[in-house]
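Project outcomes to date are best conveyed with an example. Our students and postdoctoral researchers have been running inverse folding experiments weekly, and each run begins with a structure described purely in tokens. The record below, which covers 356 residues, was selected by the lab manager from last quarter's runs and is presented without edits.
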């Protein structure tokens, strides 16, 4: 079952209204917004409310596949169309016929494939690779991106004609920090959802003072980050601990949140010379001002090793992503890890593009 679109803010209510208006028109929709704001949730809601809900909802992530694979996934291929095409395969345009095709991360679609996509959207016809036959397709195209497509068009990275084809109805989801009213209902929803999943069952609502601090936080990873915090609370049973970890997880934004009346220092490798400043690096992981008894209790080599390696990994991943303009396939290649591992680590460490 798909996730309901939770929220009571004006912007979410407006989006819900727009969804019910658009759901049965099948006009192309472009959903924009930062990472984790709920673009896929909105796409699923559009589908669920439409007459197409009894047909397929087919998703394709345009950023996750290399160009040639993306093309064959979209349009399918005939036997012998290329080396390795041992048998004919149906593409997403065909699987999604009469249903919805969700083009996720459309901003990452290579330019070379954009013209073919435009042609299919205009004509409603496509031909699989290696075939000279045209097939009719009736799909409702919903696209999503966290790129600013206007910028991409200015840089000639995204075709204007395709943009206008996709952008008939635009749904822009604001970041969570601009609709803080949604935070309490999202917390409530996810606590209820996870109660049965987590045997520790620590799902207690935050006290009003904690809730206020949670609402003050900037949530660069948006709803996904909040959702992960709730999962963590299910296990740790401490909202204070979660609150305390937030600025450390997003050092760039830490000055904006005050925890216990003090703003936390941001972490950067330059500030912490491993070789010359040993006490400072230890103080990153344990509170050196506590009594030695408590201090020794907190020092566990295994735990600190994990915390340190996570932090270095996070820093390196963020650094490389930043260098390659947040192109995840390129970053994975540079880091010599699989794309899937990179996505997993980005989600685990909550690494997301900087807020513009
Ligand atoms: N309004 C909402 N109500 C309930 N859950 C939400 C809402 N918005 C987002 N979520 C949850 O947050 C997570 C991220 O949402 P989603 O995958 O739709 O974001 P996205 O905008 O597509 O992110 P990305 O750009 O990283 O792909 C999901 O687990 C989703 O269920
Ligand atoms: Mg998404």
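After processing, the design step wrote out the following sequence:
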């Amino acid at each position: 079952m798909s996730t309901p679109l939770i929220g009571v803010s004006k912007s979410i209510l407006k989006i819900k209204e727009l969804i019910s208006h658009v759901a049965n028109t099948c006009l192309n929709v472009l959903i924009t917004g930062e990472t984790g704001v709920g673009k896929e949730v909105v796409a699923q809601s559009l589908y669920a409310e439409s007459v197409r809900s009894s047909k397929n909802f087919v998703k394709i992530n345009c950023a996750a596949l290399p160009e040639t694979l993306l093309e064959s996934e979209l349009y399918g291929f005939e036997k012998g169309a290329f080396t390795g095409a041992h048998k004919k395969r149906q593409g997403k345009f065909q699987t999604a016929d009469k249903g919805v095709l969700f083009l996720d991360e459309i901003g990452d679609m290579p330019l070379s494939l954009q013209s073919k996509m435009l042609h299919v959207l205009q004509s409603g016809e496509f031909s699989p690779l290696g075939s000279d036959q045209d097939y009719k397709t009736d799909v409702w195209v919903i696209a999503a991106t966290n790129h600013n497509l206007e910028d991409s068009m200015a840089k000639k990275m995204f075709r204007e004609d395709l943009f206008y084809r996709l952008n008939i109805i635009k749904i822009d989801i604001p970041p969570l920090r601009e609709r803080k009213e949604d935070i309490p209902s999202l917390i409530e929803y996810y606590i209820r959802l996870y109660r049965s999943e987590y045997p520790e069952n620590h799902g207690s609502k935050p006290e009003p003072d904690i809730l206020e601090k949670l609402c003050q936080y900037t949530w660069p990873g948006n709803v996904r980050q909040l959702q992960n915090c709730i999962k963590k609370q299910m296990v740790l049973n401490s909202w204070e601990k979660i609150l305390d970890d937030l600025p450390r997880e997003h050092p760039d934004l830490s000055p904006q949140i005050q925890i216990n009346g003090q703003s936390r220092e941001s972490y950067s490798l330059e500030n912490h010379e491993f070789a010359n400043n040993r006490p400072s690096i230890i103080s990153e992981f344990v509170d050196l001002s506590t009594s030695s008894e408590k201090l020794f209790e907190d020092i566990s080599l295994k735990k600190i090793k994990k915390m340190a390696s996570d932090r270095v990994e996070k820093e390196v991943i963020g650094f490389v992503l930043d260098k390659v303009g947040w192109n995840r396939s390129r970053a994975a290649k540079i880091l010599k890890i699989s794309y899937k591992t990179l996505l997993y680590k980005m989600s685990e460490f909550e690494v997301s593009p900087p807020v513009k």
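Confidence is low (pLDDT under 50) at residues 251-279. The pocket of adenosine-5'-triphosphate (ligand 1) is lined by residues 3, 5-7, 33, 35-41, 146, 223-224, 227 (CB under 6 Å). The training component of this project remains on track.
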